[in-house]
Amino acid sequence: MSSTTQVRRSGRRWRGSIVLGAVTVAALVSACSGAASGPNGGSGDAAAAPAADAKLTLTVYSKFTDREYNVVTAGLNKLKAKFPNIEIKHEGQQDDDKITQSIRGGNPPDVAISFFTDNLGAWCSTGSFQDLKPYIDRDKIDLNQIPDAVRSYTEYQGKRCAMPLLADVYGFYYNKDMFAAKGITSPPKTTSELFEATKKLTEFNPDGSIKVAGFLPSMPFYANMAQYWAPNFGATYIGPDGQSHLADSPEWKAMFDFQKQLVDFYGGHAKVEQFKAGLGEEYSADHGFQRGKLAMMIDGEYRTAFIKDQAPELKFGTAAPPVLDSKPDRYGGAFTTGTIIAIPKGAKNPGAAWELIKQVTLDTSTLVDLSNGLKNVPSTKAALTDPKLEVTPEFKTFLDLYNGGKLMPNPSTPIGDAHLKAVNDFAEKWQAGNVPDMIAGLKQVDAQINDELAQKRAGG
């Protein structure tokens, strides 16, 4: 469900951090100078729930399309069981830019759904998304039914301005037939094991070009994003002092060393790029893994649904992502993010909007139906264990990762996804050989991120 940065869902959803970047952050920062008072602004008392027979239309923006759009629309319409006269106008293909523009223009939807958590800090801190605490307190919502990591990526500095609408967990996929052909009996658990498996599984054409890649180092590409790899290396973005310390981190150094090791194995950046150019789009049936061009990859749980739909003959397995050899305790952990849902500043029907949000984020039956249709991880503990949840062995891997207590989300920052974009931009230059000194390059990234953080804190 919910992956390009914003990236997941670029094709489908998120691969946007890299697309939105500083322009979006600037728009978010200027959208509101603060939360207005009253139920339509973002502070004060919760707006009253509509009467049971109320007739109104709730407009919902999301980026869902095609099959997923239909699944989500059905879930939204479950509100009609309680409010039969409320109509849901679900407008798909609405990205974060369009949500922000609607808020700035004074004509927002009643409910905004984003594939990405990257911009949550900016939305919360500017009041672009309303504070949900008055509603949660009034309705005595127990947020402990949502795992800690998921609660953390739907709030900013103690302010809850969004709820989780299913979660994404990024695990490891491998081609079972290719493993069997090369005598590999189990998925790698460490980066050294991953590199050895890559060497065995990779096939070259007579001219030296890549025919089949064991594991692709290209970043950003598909679900190869710095933030998706980072938990496997124990790498973090922001230190306890609120500053970026990438250059001081042995974990980030190990991650980029590993990336370069893979690039060098394939014969250099040019050969990797040549191979990558022949792969299909991320959410098309011609995805490289689905067409036997990639033997292993990192991706979200939603890929299981795409494989079932687009490549049902593919024999694949899933596992926890391999971790840095010196971080064995990280095995069984993973990166998590997810779709978020909120009431924008200026929503016309905030009370009804909250009732819809409750329906799709806290009602077990609705969450299970959405999870079964989208193949995302349900975001409450009750839905996670519901007997109606459809669980294949491949999907169970992600439920286990989600419930394993080792998830790592992105930090919410007031600069939106700017820190993610900066690191992914560095990774792209590094793999191309355009950064002669890794540490010096990372120091420049730190300076860029810290400068943006300082400007934001100073009111810039």
From TrEMBL:
Keyword Signal recorded: yes
Stored Gene3D superfamilies: Periplasmic binding protein-like II
Domain of life where this protein originates: Bacteria
UniProt keywords, alphabetically: Signal, Transport
Any Pfam family matching the protein: SBP_bac_8
Cellular compartments annotated: Cell envelope
Function: Part of a binding-protein-dependent transport system for a sugar.
The family this protein is said to belong to: Belongs to the bacterial solute-binding protein 1 family.
UniProt protein name: Probable sugar-binding periplasmic protein
Organism encoding this protein: Amycolatopsis japonica
